[in-house]
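Limitations
The structure tokens in this dataset are predictions for the assembled complex, not deposited experimental models. Users should treat interface geometry with appropriate caution, especially where small molecules or nucleic acid strands are included. An illustrative entry is reproduced here so readers can see what is and is not provided.
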Amino acid sequence: MVVAMFIATLTAATLRVATPILLAAIGETFSERAGVLNLGIEGIMFLGAFVGFYTADVSGSLWVGLLAAIMSGILLGLLMAFFTVTLGVNQHVSGLGITLLASGLALYAFRLNYGGSATPPSIPPFEQLTLLENIPVLGTILNQYMLTYIGFLLVVPISWWVMYRTSFGLKIRAVGENPEAADAAGINVFRIRYIAIAAGGGLMAMGGAFLSLSQLGAFTHGIIAGRGWVAIALVIFGNWNPSKVMLGSLIFGGTYALQLRLQAMGLQLPIPYETFLALPYIVTIIALVIAGRQASYPAALLKPYRRE
Amino acid sequence: MHVVEMRQITKQFGDVIANDRVEFQLKRGEIHALLGENGAGKTTLMRILFGLYREDSGEVIVDDQPVRIGSPKDAIALGIGMVTQHFALVPPFSVAENVIMGYRDSLSMDMKAIEAEVASSAKKFTIEIDPSAIVRHLSVGQKQRVEILKALFREARVLILDEPTAVLVPQEVDALFDILRNLREQGISVIFISHKLNEVMAISDRVTVLRDGRAISTIDTSSTTPSELAKMMVGRETFGVTRQGEAVADQPILQVERLCADDGRGLQALKDISFVVNSGEILGIAGVGGNGQKELAETLCGTRQPTSGGILVRDKQMSGASPSEMTAAGLGRVPEDRHAGMVGELTVADNMVMEHLSRFTKRGMLDRKAIKNYTDQLIEQFQIKAKPSDRARTLSGGNMQKLLLARVLANQPDVLIAPQPTRGLDVGATEYVHNQLLEQRQRGAAVLLISEDLDEILALSDRIAVVYEGEIVGVLPVHDADIERLGLMMSGVIKENKDAVPQI
Amino acid sequence: MPFPKFRLEKTGAPMWFRGLIPVITLVLTFILTSGLIIWGKANPFEAYYYFLIDPLAGRVSFLEVLVKSTPLILTGIAVTVAFVAGYYNIGAEGQLYAGALAAAWLGTVLEGVSTPVAILVMVSGGFIAGMIWALIPALLRVYLNVDEVVTTLLTNSIILFIISAILNGPWRDPQSGWPQSPEIAEAARLPQLAERSRLHFGFVIALVAVAVIWFILTRTGFGLKLRAVGLGKEGARFAGIQVKRTMLLAALISGGLAGIAGYVEVAGIQYHLIGELSPGYGYTGIIIATMGGLNALAVAASGLFFGLVETGAQTVSRALGVPVYLGEITQATMLLVILGMFLLQRYRIRRV
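Predicted assembly:
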């Protein structure tokens, strides 16, 4: 029973930890499938976390906060698209610029509204849904936030369906593989890329808002802590396929959750607990090396498209 | 009654007038050839019609209505489709996905139904293709058929084909012509861009000849002759290059023995290739594009690793050597793709010395003066229109090729590898390159000329080897070679040399 | 839905326009950020006075600009070397910490040596440590074709965990319990260059690094190889340049220079290693390198300017109560504006 409960809590924690990274990675998948590497992801998540928190605090509604966060992600996505699609400048540098800008904006606005107080302000976060509460193991696992359910049961299947079963998804993949061909076929390369990057930005911000609105009920400097970079790696690991990206986020979430559980159990380990914190990153690099061998990058990734 | 009319079309790129008040009319259900040399303005005119370029002035009229074609999308909406030389296909997609891409805007896609629809459309136009096949795995001819089907599926009434036969073997050309005749029966108009007279004579109903951006004339094919068309197309005497005397080929310099290589995707591109190039001769490698020429050139240049076999330069085994080792062994290498053979963002001088950097550095430091003098000297010697400090990418194709030739020939290499050395060059530059190759032959170098241009091969080579699907299917002296026999060899119908290792 | 279409035309911008670019960049950045300053209840003109002019007016604050720019110049030049060779090293931040770690350790060992020896040993130590931390992503990129952007980002996170483990473990201060390394020896500290100022010899090291990299890139055969590989791998390979080896060397030199940035911060400012040693110098280095157009001298100038922005952000925060993060926003805005400007130098945007 102890083992079963351990596994149950571990699974529950895995899903919880995986949620923000999953959402962001799916967002990045859309962007990269359309041919644009969005390194703005870290900043978009960060600003999303702040905007979600701030709007929820002011409006008193967590859902309004979530919506506002998504809007902020879409706006930053559009800005990213302006630089990479319209102007066609270096995607690495403009992405990092967006990250710096978004982080700066979030911290600036946070300081203006909440001052520099030592104890971070907090709001009551989303409640966890308690489904099948009375069934011991399953109940524990299903004890999750609404956004986790939305992420795993709505965002992933819908993304997969859009990508592979709709003509819109066909267009996204076409502009990321061969924009010249897509253009010649009458597809508006610029519009499709704009939409994909903006939608991706919305999902990234949603991932950030999960942390501030569901998990913490607060906004802190270290709230994202490199999760965006992990999401970038997971997209490659998942070969730009939403369902495989989900698998990757679960592996990452699992290692991270294990570390959390072990720490929570107060075990005295002969190795520092940071080993476990670093482990998911190391696992991700190893996974990249293994998956990267046969990774099929979207052929037009990083390449701006210009008509002759 | 014209489907398309183009009036007084003018298009200028910088100082070059690509189209100068061109008039063009297309009837319903005709195959209309657009004939002209490279750079005559054929492709530019058609790119305007398809919305890829915008005309500077002039008028486009479709079905008697003046139209503004701002993008391919507009063109497609007007029933105009175009198949360019670079196929606009998405390799990882299936045939059906490529065909419907950007055309079917239903939210949800039922791939089975779409494939059935594509299949029935293909059947209607007598195009043989499997809709579920992945485009990456198709042959060049099949890809071209996908492109044609793509245009027809979008209800094209006007189909523009830009040099469609350049990439095909004769048999595939026949199949293409059958398709085109069938389209004509169905009332579809075809614009056939070409510079090959015999094809124009064989397939077209009318011909419009372009020269130096001007429309010279439009005539019925049945009322003209190839020589009349040739005169209109060229408009001047052509000076062929002349080879002087028979080769004094005596000494084997480059020996290639049972060379094998992959194409980078795990498919065998070279199968036991063997040949010898002697000093003072040009060996021409003829063949339709995509039969291993690229891989052969890359392997000899050291940029592709062979899987097995030998490359001997003056009896020294160089198989698998790096580019710099190849250069050091006396192998002069001109790249197939000029842009890929140099660093366009660096200067002419930088590119000129890049192969022999150690000669121009003293204790690690660049000897700038020596570099400049050397470059100045070569610019003069090879008549390159550029300054040493110009960025290489700003040079014209001909001057780029001169730069690359100068870089190599200044070192008087024993062997010269010249893959597609005149591709995309104008007449003057082509002649220049031809003379340079012949000069090297005269000097006693062993020259390997790889070309898809059969006329070039015939004009320059002492012996001709034909490649087909990565194999040498025959080697013959130029005086034994006639076009028909070569054509049959190039299409794999006859193989002359079963054991292609010639006596050394 | 009508959608605006733009077309970029390749036309060289007139010279007068090129000369105006820095001015236009500044003005645009000012306009774009002034809304935020007003939101922060300050007058934008006043704010920009404190931001860009006031720090240069006084001796102390001017020297402080040089102090702030020291690590920025080093990370900027580090990123430059990698980017010139087409290796997208986003890992300067992690490599900086690797160098800092080495410096913190060497600093406790080098008790009693002379200052020049200490500097020599510690510069080498920082360089080697940065190189080692850059090695794995570089090898993965060059030999297994694993994207260096992603791996360097991940290794940045990993080294922070390593530092945290060491600072909370063996190096935790036994008295105060602070997670910081023991103070480095007197001899290991970088000499001060001016009285009543934090300006230290690390600034000179940064300038020397700039000079060396400038010389390598513009005057040596190796520099030409680096540029060739960065501007056209295929062409470089065809001409016989060993692309993999060249790229690997660029990545390692880049890591080493970033490591020196970590060393100067430890030995010049902090005198011990802390987890918050860098507020993102490595990432800012990417921006500095880009703004400097990957030209070593311009990168140094851009590093100095960023030092001014960092100092000015603090001045403006103290004087007017505007949050100090205005600095980050200004840097980011300026980067994005200048990215657009670079493009306008070569293209004209035309609506079609």
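Some entries come with short summary sentences. For this one: The mean pLDDT of chain A is 91.
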